[in-house]
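Entry:
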Amino acid sequence: MLHLSSRNRNSSTEEKEENQSQKPPLPGLLIKTFVDKGFVPPLKLICFITRYKFICPMELTEELADQFEKNGYFILQNFLPDDLLIAMRSEIEQLQQSKDFRKAGIGKESDFKIDDGQRGDFICWIDQQNPFPASARYIEEINSLIPQLNRSFFLGINNYECHYAVYPPGTFYKRHSDRHKKSSPRVVSMVFYLNENWQPEDGGQLRIYDQDKILAEVLPQAGTLVIFLSETEHEVMPTYRSRMSLTGWMRSE
């Protein structure tokens, strides 16, 4: 089991001066115009429209580090601007049209199997060396967090993997841990939600556990980022709308 008690409290301000610049506004109005008219922009167009570099908005503040140390998770609202969320949703629609999504399973290697009674989502893995245009901007921000977590909690993270996930109406993911039983290099799990105007009656909440206690129940509202230790048990409650996210894991190898 991972322990966060040996926290380095001198690291929280090391990069603060680097994070003072303001992010440029996103030129997402063109994407929104396309989407409102029912047209999914081609990925090359998304790449052109979102072709800017974020100025490191992800900072592990003292408050977030305290939450992570105490609870093993923290939640950020409005993590990225709406324009980029529009681009990422359009990216998912484009990938669905090109049939890049596959049914997700459980287990690893020889133990892998499809089990609709346990998990019902469809996933599309993202190549770190050649990511999709909109998701590349997100990955850039997450990569800026890795050294901050390592400095604060000595987690030994040196890699990151992620995929898009879509839960059709009526699906779920029963209680589980992201660290495989035999062995797993996954250290920290992250879920970033892309769902516009999500309501409690739409279901699909992420429920985080500590043994028999529910620590948190998170509505999968667009712009919400949830970060938690991969050993933490959690589940996706039944969803009654199509539910989209970008899910990833920081790894120790």
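Helices lie at 29-36, 43-49, 62-71, 82-97, 133-153.
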